[in-house]
Design goal:
- The complex is a heterodimer of chains A (369) and B (186).
- Chain A is 28% helix and 21% strand.
- Chain A has 369 residues and is an alpha+beta fold.
- In chain A, a hairpin with a 5-residue loop joins strand 6 and strand 7 (227-236).
- The longest helix of chain A is centred in the first third of the chain and has 25 residues, at 19-43.
- With 186 residues, chain B is mainly alpha-helical.
- Helices cover 65% and strands 4% of the residues of chain B.
- In chain B, helix 1 (10-35) packs antiparallel against helix 2 (40-66), helix 2 (40-66) crosses helix 3 (79-109) and helix 3 packs antiparallel against helix 4.
- Chain B is built from 4 helices and 2 strands; from the N terminus they run αααββα.
- The chains are: A alpha+beta (369), B mainly alpha (186).
Chain lengths: 369, 186
Protein backbone atom coordinates (compact mmCIF):
# COMPACT_ATOMS: atom_id res chain seq x y z
CA UNK A 1 0.00 0.00 0.00
CA UNK A 2 1.48 3.26 -1.09
CA UNK A 3 0.58 6.01 1.38
CA UNK A 4 0.98 8.74 -1.20
CA UNK A 5 -1.54 7.09 -3.47
CA UNK A 6 -4.89 8.73 -2.89
CA UNK A 7 -7.37 7.72 -5.49
CA UNK A 8 -9.95 10.46 -5.52
CA UNK A 9 -12.77 7.89 -5.55
CA UNK A 10 -11.60 6.06 -2.44
CA UNK A 11 -13.49 6.71 0.73
CA UNK A 12 -11.74 7.53 3.99
CA UNK A 13 -12.74 4.13 5.41
CA UNK A 14 -10.74 2.23 2.83
CA UNK A 15 -7.55 4.17 2.96
CA UNK A 16 -4.87 1.93 4.37
CA UNK A 17 -4.62 -1.63 5.60
CA UNK A 18 -1.55 -2.64 7.49
CA UNK A 19 0.49 -5.26 5.66
CA UNK A 20 -0.39 -7.98 8.23
CA UNK A 21 -4.07 -7.23 8.10
CA UNK A 22 -4.01 -7.22 4.30
CA UNK A 23 -2.32 -10.63 4.23
CA UNK A 24 -4.87 -12.10 6.63
CA UNK A 25 -7.75 -10.80 4.54
CA UNK A 26 -6.26 -12.08 1.28
CA UNK A 27 -5.71 -15.49 2.86
CA UNK A 28 -9.26 -15.50 4.20
CA UNK A 29 -10.69 -14.81 0.73
CA UNK A 30 -8.47 -17.49 -0.82
CA UNK A 31 -9.57 -20.00 1.80
CA UNK A 32 -13.24 -19.32 1.12
CA UNK A 33 -12.79 -19.80 -2.63
CA UNK A 34 -10.54 -22.86 -2.25
CA UNK A 35 -12.86 -24.32 0.38
CA UNK A 36 -15.93 -24.08 -1.84
CA UNK A 37 -14.01 -25.47 -4.81
CA UNK A 38 -12.64 -28.33 -2.70
CA UNK A 39 -16.07 -29.16 -1.35
CA UNK A 40 -17.44 -29.19 -4.88
CA UNK A 41 -14.63 -31.47 -6.07
CA UNK A 42 -15.27 -33.80 -3.14
CA UNK A 43 -19.03 -33.83 -3.81
CA UNK A 44 -18.38 -34.65 -7.46
CA UNK A 45 -16.23 -37.60 -6.35
CA UNK A 46 -12.98 -36.25 -7.83
CA UNK A 47 -11.08 -36.64 -4.56
CA UNK A 48 -12.27 -40.21 -3.89
CA UNK A 49 -11.36 -42.25 -7.00
CA UNK A 50 -11.83 -45.56 -5.15
CA UNK A 51 -15.49 -45.03 -4.35
CA UNK A 52 -17.80 -46.98 -6.64
CA UNK A 53 -19.67 -44.69 -9.05
CA UNK A 54 -22.04 -45.24 -12.00
CA UNK A 55 -19.13 -44.41 -14.31
CA UNK A 56 -16.97 -47.15 -12.83
CA UNK A 57 -19.75 -49.74 -13.11
CA UNK A 58 -20.31 -48.98 -16.78
CA UNK A 59 -16.53 -48.89 -17.36
CA UNK A 60 -16.38 -52.41 -15.97
CA UNK A 61 -19.04 -53.59 -18.40
CA UNK A 62 -16.89 -52.24 -21.23
CA UNK A 63 -13.82 -53.83 -19.69
CA UNK A 64 -15.31 -57.36 -19.55
CA UNK A 65 -17.44 -57.26 -22.71
CA UNK A 66 -15.43 -54.99 -24.97
CA UNK A 67 -16.84 -51.82 -26.44
CA UNK A 68 -20.06 -52.05 -28.45
CA UNK A 69 -20.97 -48.47 -29.34
CA UNK A 70 -24.65 -47.61 -29.53
CA UNK A 71 -25.81 -50.65 -27.52
CA UNK A 72 -26.98 -51.07 -23.97
CA UNK A 73 -24.02 -52.02 -21.77
CA UNK A 74 -26.08 -54.84 -20.28
CA UNK A 75 -29.05 -56.70 -21.77
CA UNK A 76 -27.39 -55.70 -25.03
CA UNK A 77 -29.14 -58.19 -27.30
CA UNK A 78 -32.86 -57.65 -27.60
CA UNK A 79 -36.01 -57.14 -29.59
CA UNK A 80 -38.78 -54.59 -29.09
CA UNK A 81 -42.41 -55.35 -28.42
CA UNK A 82 -45.72 -53.58 -27.97
CA UNK A 83 -49.21 -54.41 -26.79
CA UNK A 84 -51.40 -53.50 -23.86
CA UNK A 85 -52.12 -54.20 -20.22
CA UNK A 86 -55.70 -54.84 -19.23
CA UNK A 87 -56.27 -54.16 -15.54
CA UNK A 88 -59.01 -56.17 -13.83
CA UNK A 89 -59.37 -53.66 -10.96
CA UNK A 90 -58.03 -56.08 -8.30
CA UNK A 91 -55.01 -53.84 -7.72
CA UNK A 92 -57.05 -50.77 -6.73
CA UNK A 93 -57.13 -51.80 -3.07
CA UNK A 94 -53.35 -52.23 -3.04
CA UNK A 95 -52.20 -49.09 -4.82
CA UNK A 96 -53.72 -45.82 -5.95
CA UNK A 97 -51.69 -45.91 -9.19
CA UNK A 98 -54.05 -45.26 -12.13
CA UNK A 99 -52.63 -48.29 -13.95
CA UNK A 100 -54.73 -50.47 -11.63
CA UNK A 101 -58.06 -48.83 -12.44
CA UNK A 102 -60.05 -51.26 -14.62
CA UNK A 103 -59.19 -50.73 -18.26
CA UNK A 104 -56.50 -50.92 -20.87
CA UNK A 105 -53.19 -49.05 -21.10
CA UNK A 106 -50.74 -49.27 -24.03
CA UNK A 107 -47.36 -50.88 -23.50
CA UNK A 108 -44.05 -50.77 -25.26
CA UNK A 109 -41.15 -52.88 -24.15
CA UNK A 110 -38.25 -55.10 -24.92
CA UNK A 111 -37.21 -58.72 -24.49
CA UNK A 112 -33.49 -59.20 -24.03
CA UNK A 113 -30.73 -61.47 -22.86
CA UNK A 114 -28.68 -60.20 -19.94
CA UNK A 115 -25.46 -60.27 -21.92
CA UNK A 116 -23.02 -57.45 -22.61
CA UNK A 117 -22.31 -58.49 -26.19
CA UNK A 118 -25.04 -57.47 -28.64
CA UNK A 119 -24.19 -60.17 -31.23
CA UNK A 120 -23.62 -63.09 -28.83
CA UNK A 121 -25.31 -66.36 -29.79
CA UNK A 122 -28.48 -67.13 -27.80
CA UNK A 123 -27.87 -69.44 -24.87
CA UNK A 124 -30.29 -71.21 -22.55
CA UNK A 125 -28.26 -70.11 -19.57
CA UNK A 126 -28.31 -66.38 -20.29
CA UNK A 127 -30.79 -64.57 -18.07
CA UNK A 128 -33.86 -63.44 -20.03
CA UNK A 129 -35.47 -60.12 -19.35
CA UNK A 130 -38.75 -58.37 -20.05
CA UNK A 131 -38.70 -54.57 -19.85
CA UNK A 132 -41.99 -52.68 -20.03
CA UNK A 133 -43.19 -49.11 -20.20
CA UNK A 134 -46.86 -48.64 -19.25
CA UNK A 135 -48.23 -45.39 -20.75
CA UNK A 136 -50.87 -44.23 -18.29
CA UNK A 137 -53.77 -42.06 -19.43
CA UNK A 138 -52.78 -39.13 -17.17
CA UNK A 139 -49.34 -38.94 -18.78
CA UNK A 140 -47.52 -40.82 -16.03
CA UNK A 141 -45.29 -43.79 -16.84
CA UNK A 142 -44.44 -47.04 -15.14
CA UNK A 143 -41.20 -48.61 -16.28
CA UNK A 144 -40.06 -51.99 -15.06
CA UNK A 145 -37.30 -54.42 -15.97
CA UNK A 146 -37.85 -58.02 -14.88
CA UNK A 147 -35.76 -61.18 -15.14
CA UNK A 148 -36.60 -64.89 -15.45
CA UNK A 149 -34.64 -65.80 -12.32
CA UNK A 150 -36.19 -66.37 -8.87
CA UNK A 151 -33.82 -64.04 -6.96
CA UNK A 152 -31.05 -61.62 -7.92
CA UNK A 153 -27.45 -62.85 -7.64
CA UNK A 154 -26.20 -59.89 -5.57
CA UNK A 155 -27.61 -57.59 -2.92
CA UNK A 156 -25.47 -54.49 -3.55
CA UNK A 157 -23.83 -52.47 -6.30
CA UNK A 158 -20.43 -53.45 -4.89
CA UNK A 159 -21.35 -57.13 -5.14
CA UNK A 160 -22.52 -56.62 -8.70
CA UNK A 161 -19.29 -54.82 -9.62
CA UNK A 162 -17.19 -57.67 -8.21
CA UNK A 163 -19.34 -60.39 -9.79
CA UNK A 164 -18.93 -58.81 -13.23
CA UNK A 165 -15.18 -59.28 -13.01
CA UNK A 166 -15.30 -62.68 -11.28
CA UNK A 167 -17.58 -64.14 -13.95
CA UNK A 168 -15.80 -62.51 -16.91
CA UNK A 169 -14.20 -64.75 -19.50
CA UNK A 170 -10.44 -65.07 -19.08
CA UNK A 171 -8.87 -63.88 -22.36
CA UNK A 172 -6.46 -66.86 -22.28
CA UNK A 173 -9.04 -69.64 -21.95
CA UNK A 174 -12.24 -67.92 -23.11
CA UNK A 175 -13.91 -69.17 -19.93
CA UNK A 176 -14.37 -67.63 -16.49
CA UNK A 177 -11.60 -68.37 -14.03
CA UNK A 178 -13.14 -70.72 -11.40
CA UNK A 179 -10.77 -69.49 -8.68
CA UNK A 180 -11.98 -65.90 -9.10
CA UNK A 181 -15.56 -67.06 -8.82
CA UNK A 182 -14.89 -69.09 -5.68
CA UNK A 183 -13.08 -66.11 -4.14
CA UNK A 184 -16.12 -63.97 -4.90
CA UNK A 185 -18.56 -66.49 -3.43
CA UNK A 186 -16.45 -66.81 -0.29
CA UNK A 187 -16.64 -63.05 0.20
CA UNK A 188 -20.34 -62.92 -0.68
CA UNK A 189 -22.20 -65.83 0.95
CA UNK A 190 -25.54 -64.16 0.09
CA UNK A 191 -24.60 -64.49 -3.59
CA UNK A 192 -23.54 -68.13 -3.14
CA UNK A 193 -27.02 -68.95 -1.79
CA UNK A 194 -28.79 -66.91 -4.46
CA UNK A 195 -26.82 -68.54 -7.28
CA UNK A 196 -27.78 -71.98 -5.92
CA UNK A 197 -31.45 -70.98 -6.08
CA UNK A 198 -31.01 -69.64 -9.61
CA UNK A 199 -29.29 -72.84 -10.76
CA UNK A 200 -32.01 -74.99 -9.17
CA UNK A 201 -34.80 -73.29 -11.14
CA UNK A 202 -35.90 -74.96 -14.37
CA UNK A 203 -35.28 -72.92 -17.49
CA UNK A 204 -38.24 -72.76 -19.87
CA UNK A 205 -38.11 -73.31 -23.62
CA UNK A 206 -38.09 -69.64 -24.58
CA UNK A 207 -39.11 -66.05 -23.91
CA UNK A 208 -42.84 -66.78 -24.25
CA UNK A 209 -43.17 -69.37 -21.47
CA UNK A 210 -40.84 -67.65 -18.99
CA UNK A 211 -41.95 -65.91 -15.80
CA UNK A 212 -40.36 -62.52 -15.22
CA UNK A 213 -39.78 -61.22 -11.71
CA UNK A 214 -39.19 -57.72 -10.34
CA UNK A 215 -36.60 -59.21 -7.92
CA UNK A 216 -36.29 -55.89 -6.06
CA UNK A 217 -39.06 -55.02 -3.62
CA UNK A 218 -41.20 -51.91 -4.06
CA UNK A 219 -43.92 -50.20 -2.06
CA UNK A 220 -47.54 -49.86 -3.10
CA UNK A 221 -49.26 -46.81 -1.63
CA UNK A 222 -53.03 -46.93 -1.40
CA UNK A 223 -55.58 -44.09 -1.47
CA UNK A 224 -55.30 -43.69 2.33
CA UNK A 225 -51.54 -43.25 2.04
CA UNK A 226 -50.55 -46.51 3.71
CA UNK A 227 -47.73 -48.50 2.14
CA UNK A 228 -47.36 -52.23 1.47
CA UNK A 229 -44.13 -54.01 0.56
CA UNK A 230 -44.56 -55.81 -2.77
CA UNK A 231 -42.73 -57.72 -5.46
CA UNK A 232 -44.30 -58.47 -8.83
CA UNK A 233 -44.08 -61.06 -11.55
CA UNK A 234 -45.31 -61.58 -15.08
CA UNK A 235 -46.56 -65.19 -15.17
CA UNK A 236 -47.10 -66.61 -18.66
CA UNK A 237 -50.43 -67.89 -19.98
CA UNK A 238 -48.37 -69.92 -22.45
CA UNK A 239 -47.85 -73.44 -21.05
CA UNK A 240 -44.41 -74.09 -19.58
CA UNK A 241 -42.07 -76.32 -21.52
CA UNK A 242 -38.58 -77.06 -20.26
CA UNK A 243 -35.69 -75.98 -22.42
CA UNK A 244 -34.78 -78.86 -24.69
CA UNK A 245 -31.09 -78.83 -25.53
CA UNK A 246 -31.62 -81.56 -28.13
CA UNK A 247 -33.92 -79.25 -30.13
CA UNK A 248 -31.58 -76.32 -30.03
CA UNK A 249 -29.71 -75.67 -33.24
CA UNK A 250 -26.18 -74.44 -32.77
CA UNK A 251 -26.26 -72.93 -36.25
CA UNK A 252 -29.05 -70.55 -35.31
CA UNK A 253 -27.46 -67.81 -33.24
CA UNK A 254 -30.82 -66.10 -32.68
CA UNK A 255 -32.88 -69.19 -31.89
CA UNK A 256 -34.60 -67.77 -28.80
CA UNK A 257 -35.47 -64.51 -30.55
CA UNK A 258 -36.56 -66.27 -33.75
CA UNK A 259 -38.91 -68.50 -31.75
CA UNK A 260 -40.34 -65.46 -29.92
CA UNK A 261 -40.94 -63.63 -33.21
CA UNK A 262 -42.64 -66.70 -34.72
CA UNK A 263 -44.81 -67.05 -31.59
CA UNK A 264 -45.96 -63.41 -31.65
CA UNK A 265 -46.65 -63.61 -35.39
CA UNK A 266 -48.87 -66.64 -34.90
CA UNK A 267 -50.77 -65.39 -31.82
CA UNK A 268 -50.57 -62.69 -29.14
CA UNK A 269 -48.64 -63.75 -26.04
CA UNK A 270 -50.10 -63.13 -22.60
CA UNK A 271 -48.91 -62.87 -19.02
CA UNK A 272 -50.72 -62.30 -15.71
CA UNK A 273 -49.31 -59.50 -13.58
CA UNK A 274 -49.12 -61.07 -10.12
CA UNK A 275 -48.47 -58.84 -7.11
CA UNK A 276 -46.92 -60.60 -4.11
CA UNK A 277 -47.66 -58.74 -0.88
CA UNK A 278 -44.93 -58.97 1.73
CA UNK A 279 -45.48 -59.13 5.47
CA UNK A 280 -43.64 -57.25 8.18
CA UNK A 281 -40.20 -58.80 8.49
CA UNK A 282 -39.97 -59.94 4.88
CA UNK A 283 -36.64 -58.72 3.49
CA UNK A 284 -37.17 -55.70 1.22
CA UNK A 285 -33.53 -54.64 0.95
CA UNK A 286 -32.25 -58.12 0.02
CA UNK A 287 -32.88 -59.05 -3.60
CA UNK A 288 -30.95 -62.30 -3.06
CA UNK A 289 -33.60 -63.63 -0.66
CA UNK A 290 -36.94 -65.08 -1.76
CA UNK A 291 -40.06 -64.30 0.25
CA UNK A 292 -41.92 -67.20 1.90
CA UNK A 293 -44.06 -69.03 -0.69
CA UNK A 294 -47.33 -68.57 1.23
CA UNK A 295 -47.47 -64.79 0.77
CA UNK A 296 -50.69 -63.31 -0.61
CA UNK A 297 -50.66 -63.05 -4.39
CA UNK A 298 -53.07 -60.86 -6.33
CA UNK A 299 -53.65 -61.18 -10.07
CA UNK A 300 -54.19 -57.55 -11.10
CA UNK A 301 -54.49 -57.91 -14.87
CA UNK A 302 -53.25 -59.34 -18.13
CA UNK A 303 -50.42 -58.22 -20.37
CA UNK A 304 -50.91 -58.87 -24.07
CA UNK A 305 -47.95 -58.63 -26.46
CA UNK A 306 -49.14 -58.60 -30.07
CA UNK A 307 -46.37 -56.78 -31.94
CA UNK A 308 -42.66 -57.36 -32.31
CA UNK A 309 -40.19 -55.01 -33.92
CA UNK A 310 -36.44 -54.84 -34.40
CA UNK A 311 -34.56 -52.34 -32.23
CA UNK A 312 -33.55 -50.72 -35.53
CA UNK A 313 -37.15 -49.55 -36.01
CA UNK A 314 -38.62 -49.21 -32.52
CA UNK A 315 -38.63 -46.21 -30.17
CA UNK A 316 -38.03 -48.71 -27.34
CA UNK A 317 -34.36 -48.83 -28.33
CA UNK A 318 -33.99 -45.29 -26.97
CA UNK A 319 -35.89 -45.81 -23.75
CA UNK A 320 -34.08 -46.23 -20.47
CA UNK A 321 -36.06 -48.86 -18.52
CA UNK A 322 -35.11 -47.21 -15.24
CA UNK A 323 -36.84 -49.19 -12.45
CA UNK A 324 -37.56 -45.99 -10.52
CA UNK A 325 -39.67 -44.35 -13.20
CA UNK A 326 -42.86 -45.05 -11.27
CA UNK A 327 -46.38 -43.64 -11.21
CA UNK A 328 -47.85 -42.06 -8.10
CA UNK A 329 -48.92 -45.02 -5.94
CA UNK A 330 -45.79 -47.12 -6.55
CA UNK A 331 -42.47 -46.25 -4.89
CA UNK A 332 -39.07 -47.83 -4.44
CA UNK A 333 -38.23 -49.82 -1.30
CA UNK A 334 -35.10 -49.57 0.84
CA UNK A 335 -33.35 -51.97 -1.57
CA UNK A 336 -30.06 -50.18 -2.43
CA UNK A 337 -29.98 -51.90 -5.83
CA UNK A 338 -32.87 -49.75 -7.06
CA UNK A 339 -31.09 -46.40 -6.87
CA UNK A 340 -27.87 -48.05 -8.11
CA UNK A 341 -29.69 -49.51 -11.13
CA UNK A 342 -31.25 -46.12 -11.83
CA UNK A 343 -27.82 -44.44 -11.72
CA UNK A 344 -25.99 -47.06 -13.78
CA UNK A 345 -28.76 -47.26 -16.40
CA UNK A 346 -28.61 -43.47 -16.77
CA UNK A 347 -24.85 -43.65 -17.39
CA UNK A 348 -25.24 -46.46 -19.93
CA UNK A 349 -28.09 -44.56 -21.60
CA UNK A 350 -26.09 -41.33 -21.86
CA UNK A 351 -23.13 -43.14 -23.40
CA UNK A 352 -25.09 -45.09 -26.01
CA UNK A 353 -27.32 -42.19 -27.04
CA UNK A 354 -24.20 -40.21 -27.99
CA UNK A 355 -22.72 -43.03 -30.07
CA UNK A 356 -23.48 -43.92 -33.67
CA UNK A 357 -25.95 -46.78 -33.91
CA UNK A 358 -25.13 -50.19 -35.31
CA UNK A 359 -27.73 -52.65 -36.60
CA UNK A 360 -29.29 -54.93 -34.03
CA UNK A 361 -28.55 -58.68 -34.18
CA UNK A 362 -32.31 -59.14 -34.51
CA UNK A 363 -32.96 -57.18 -37.71
CA UNK A 364 -36.14 -55.78 -39.24
CA UNK A 365 -35.84 -58.51 -41.89
CA UNK A 366 -36.27 -61.08 -39.11
CA UNK A 367 -39.05 -59.33 -37.22
CA UNK A 368 -41.06 -58.45 -40.34
CA UNK A 369 -43.67 -60.92 -41.49
CA UNK B 1 -39.77 -0.67 -2.08
CA UNK B 2 -36.92 1.14 -0.38
CA UNK B 3 -35.94 4.76 -0.35
CA UNK B 4 -32.32 4.00 0.17
CA UNK B 5 -30.60 4.56 -3.18
CA UNK B 6 -27.39 2.82 -2.11
CA UNK B 7 -29.12 -0.57 -1.82
CA UNK B 8 -30.98 -2.81 -4.23
CA UNK B 9 -34.76 -2.91 -3.81
CA UNK B 10 -35.92 -5.26 -1.04
CA UNK B 11 -37.50 -7.75 -3.47
CA UNK B 12 -34.29 -7.80 -5.50
CA UNK B 13 -32.25 -8.56 -2.40
CA UNK B 14 -34.62 -11.32 -1.26
CA UNK B 15 -34.56 -12.90 -4.73
CA UNK B 16 -30.78 -12.63 -4.86
CA UNK B 17 -30.12 -14.52 -1.64
CA UNK B 18 -32.91 -17.03 -2.14
CA UNK B 19 -31.63 -17.91 -5.59
CA UNK B 20 -28.01 -17.88 -4.46
CA UNK B 21 -28.88 -20.61 -1.96
CA UNK B 22 -30.94 -22.56 -4.50
CA UNK B 23 -28.34 -22.34 -7.27
CA UNK B 24 -25.49 -23.35 -5.00
CA UNK B 25 -27.55 -26.26 -3.62
CA UNK B 26 -28.41 -27.24 -7.18
CA UNK B 27 -24.74 -27.27 -8.27
CA UNK B 28 -23.80 -29.51 -5.35
CA UNK B 29 -26.82 -31.80 -5.81
CA UNK B 30 -25.99 -32.12 -9.49
CA UNK B 31 -22.34 -32.95 -8.83
CA UNK B 32 -23.21 -35.45 -6.08
CA UNK B 33 -25.97 -37.05 -8.14
CA UNK B 34 -23.89 -38.14 -11.11
CA UNK B 35 -21.26 -39.66 -8.82
CA UNK B 36 -23.69 -41.43 -6.52
CA UNK B 37 -25.24 -44.89 -6.64
CA UNK B 38 -27.06 -45.03 -3.31
CA UNK B 39 -28.42 -41.47 -3.30
CA UNK B 40 -28.85 -41.04 -7.04
CA UNK B 41 -32.61 -41.42 -7.10
CA UNK B 42 -33.23 -39.26 -4.02
CA UNK B 43 -31.07 -36.46 -5.44
CA UNK B 44 -32.61 -36.58 -8.93
CA UNK B 45 -36.06 -36.38 -7.34
CA UNK B 46 -35.00 -33.06 -5.72
CA UNK B 47 -33.00 -31.82 -8.71
CA UNK B 48 -35.91 -31.80 -11.18
CA UNK B 49 -38.52 -29.75 -9.26
CA UNK B 50 -35.83 -27.46 -7.78
CA UNK B 51 -34.62 -26.71 -11.31
CA UNK B 52 -38.13 -25.79 -12.43
CA UNK B 53 -38.53 -23.59 -9.33
CA UNK B 54 -35.31 -21.79 -10.29
CA UNK B 55 -36.66 -21.28 -13.82
CA UNK B 56 -39.85 -19.69 -12.47
CA UNK B 57 -37.92 -17.49 -10.02
CA UNK B 58 -35.50 -16.48 -12.79
CA UNK B 59 -38.46 -15.15 -14.78
CA UNK B 60 -39.75 -13.26 -11.73
CA UNK B 61 -36.29 -11.89 -11.16
CA UNK B 62 -35.80 -10.76 -14.74
CA UNK B 63 -39.11 -8.85 -14.71
CA UNK B 64 -38.20 -7.33 -11.35
CA UNK B 65 -34.78 -6.37 -12.70
CA UNK B 66 -36.33 -4.55 -15.66
CA UNK B 67 -38.65 -2.48 -13.49
CA UNK B 68 -36.39 -1.42 -10.64
CA UNK B 69 -33.71 1.22 -10.44
CA UNK B 70 -30.30 -0.08 -9.49
CA UNK B 71 -28.06 1.57 -6.92
CA UNK B 72 -25.06 3.24 -8.56
CA UNK B 73 -21.70 1.43 -8.68
CA UNK B 74 -19.41 2.64 -5.91
CA UNK B 75 -16.75 5.07 -7.08
CA UNK B 76 -14.09 2.48 -6.21
CA UNK B 77 -15.04 0.45 -9.27
CA UNK B 78 -13.13 1.24 -12.45
CA UNK B 79 -14.78 1.29 -15.87
CA UNK B 80 -13.26 -2.07 -16.58
CA UNK B 81 -14.65 -3.54 -13.34
CA UNK B 82 -18.08 -2.10 -14.05
CA UNK B 83 -18.06 -3.69 -17.46
CA UNK B 84 -17.03 -7.07 -16.00
CA UNK B 85 -19.66 -6.83 -13.27
CA UNK B 86 -22.42 -6.13 -15.79
CA UNK B 87 -21.20 -8.84 -18.16
CA UNK B 88 -21.07 -11.47 -15.40
CA UNK B 89 -24.54 -10.42 -14.24
CA UNK B 90 -25.87 -10.97 -17.77
CA UNK B 91 -24.11 -14.34 -17.91
CA UNK B 92 -25.62 -15.38 -14.56
CA UNK B 93 -29.12 -14.43 -15.72
CA UNK B 94 -28.59 -16.36 -18.96
CA UNK B 95 -27.46 -19.45 -17.04
CA UNK B 96 -30.40 -19.23 -14.61
CA UNK B 97 -32.66 -19.68 -17.64
CA UNK B 98 -30.44 -21.92 -19.75
CA UNK B 99 -29.65 -24.62 -17.18
CA UNK B 100 -33.26 -25.52 -16.27
CA UNK B 101 -34.38 -25.23 -19.90
CA UNK B 102 -31.55 -27.45 -21.13
CA UNK B 103 -32.34 -29.92 -18.33
CA UNK B 104 -36.02 -29.99 -19.25
CA UNK B 105 -35.21 -30.30 -22.95
CA UNK B 106 -32.67 -33.03 -22.26
CA UNK B 107 -35.21 -35.15 -20.35
CA UNK B 108 -37.72 -34.58 -23.16
CA UNK B 109 -35.21 -35.67 -25.81
CA UNK B 110 -34.25 -38.67 -23.66
CA UNK B 111 -37.86 -39.91 -23.59
CA UNK B 112 -38.04 -39.50 -19.81
CA UNK B 113 -41.20 -38.42 -18.02
CA UNK B 114 -40.57 -35.03 -16.38
CA UNK B 115 -41.82 -35.86 -12.90
CA UNK B 116 -42.23 -33.01 -10.41
CA UNK B 117 -43.94 -34.57 -7.38
CA UNK B 118 -46.68 -37.14 -6.91
CA UNK B 119 -48.59 -37.48 -10.17
CA UNK B 120 -47.61 -33.94 -11.27
CA UNK B 121 -45.32 -33.85 -14.28
CA UNK B 122 -44.44 -31.46 -17.09
CA UNK B 123 -44.95 -32.03 -20.81
CA UNK B 124 -41.91 -32.60 -23.04
CA UNK B 125 -40.60 -29.47 -24.76
CA UNK B 126 -38.60 -31.33 -27.42
CA UNK B 127 -39.14 -34.50 -29.45
CA UNK B 128 -37.44 -37.71 -28.28
CA UNK B 129 -34.16 -37.94 -30.16
CA UNK B 130 -30.93 -39.72 -29.12
CA UNK B 131 -28.48 -37.23 -30.65
CA UNK B 132 -30.35 -34.25 -29.26
CA UNK B 133 -30.36 -35.92 -25.84
CA UNK B 134 -26.62 -36.56 -25.98
CA UNK B 135 -25.84 -32.96 -26.97
CA UNK B 136 -28.11 -31.42 -24.32
CA UNK B 137 -26.80 -33.79 -21.63
CA UNK B 138 -23.25 -32.61 -22.38
CA UNK B 139 -24.37 -28.97 -22.55
CA UNK B 140 -26.05 -29.30 -19.14
CA UNK B 141 -22.73 -30.34 -17.56
CA UNK B 142 -20.69 -27.64 -19.34
CA UNK B 143 -23.16 -24.89 -18.44
CA UNK B 144 -23.18 -26.07 -14.81
CA UNK B 145 -19.38 -25.78 -14.62
CA UNK B 146 -19.61 -22.36 -16.23
CA UNK B 147 -22.15 -21.33 -13.59
CA UNK B 148 -19.88 -22.58 -10.83
CA UNK B 149 -16.88 -20.65 -12.19
CA UNK B 150 -18.95 -17.48 -12.70
CA UNK B 151 -20.26 -17.79 -9.15
CA UNK B 152 -16.69 -18.10 -7.81
CA UNK B 153 -15.65 -15.02 -9.80
CA UNK B 154 -18.63 -13.06 -8.45
CA UNK B 155 -17.99 -14.15 -4.87
CA UNK B 156 -14.26 -13.44 -4.94
CA UNK B 157 -14.65 -9.95 -6.44
CA UNK B 158 -17.30 -8.97 -3.89
CA UNK B 159 -15.12 -10.30 -1.08
CA UNK B 160 -12.13 -8.43 -2.47
CA UNK B 161 -14.06 -5.16 -2.56
CA UNK B 162 -15.59 -5.67 0.85
CA UNK B 163 -12.52 -6.90 2.73
CA UNK B 164 -9.57 -5.36 0.91
CA UNK B 165 -10.80 -2.14 -0.70
CA UNK B 166 -13.41 -1.87 2.08
CA UNK B 167 -15.88 0.09 -0.01
CA UNK B 168 -18.87 -1.69 1.58
CA UNK B 169 -19.88 -3.16 -1.76
CA UNK B 170 -21.69 -6.01 -0.01
CA UNK B 171 -24.02 -3.53 1.71
CA UNK B 172 -25.76 -2.95 -1.60
CA UNK B 173 -27.13 -6.50 -1.40
CA UNK B 174 -27.44 -6.84 2.40
CA UNK B 175 -30.82 -8.21 3.46
CA UNK B 176 -31.04 -5.74 6.31
CA UNK B 177 -31.26 -1.99 5.64
CA UNK B 178 -27.93 -0.20 5.64
CA UNK B 179 -27.89 3.58 6.07
CA UNK B 180 -26.57 5.63 3.23
CA UNK B 181 -23.23 7.06 4.28
CA UNK B 182 -23.43 10.82 4.39
CA UNK B 183 -19.67 11.07 4.79
CA UNK B 184 -19.21 9.82 1.25
CA UNK B 185 -20.54 12.95 -0.32
CA UNK B 186 -18.43 15.29 1.78
Amino acid sequence: MNSSDHNSGLEPACAKLRRGSLMIRLIAISLVILGITGLFAYTAGWLTPNVLTPTRIIDRFEQVNGEHPGFRRNHAKGVCISGYFESNGQGVGLSKAVVFLPGRVPIIGRFALAVGQPYAADSAHAVRSMALLFKLPNGEEWRTGMNNIPVFAVNSAQGFYELLLASAADPATGKPDPSKMSDFLARHPESAKAIQLIRASTVSSGFGDSSYNSLDAFRFIDAQGSALPVRWSMVPCQPFEPFNAALSRASDTNQLFDALIADIHSHALQWHLIITVGQPGDPTAEATLPWPPDRRQVDVGTLTIDHVESEDASPARDINFDPLVLPNGIAGSDDPLLSARSAAYAESFTRREGESKNPSAVSTAQTGR
Amino acid sequence: MTNNPSQFALLSRILHWLMAAMLLAMLFIGAAMVASLGNYHRLVAIHRPLGIMILILAAVRLVNRMFTTLPPFPPTMSQRERFLASASERLLYTLMFALPLVGWGMLSAGHYPIVMFGPVHLPPILPANPTLYAILRKAHTILAYLLFVTFLFHLSTVLFHTLIIRDRLLNRMALWPVRSRKKTSS
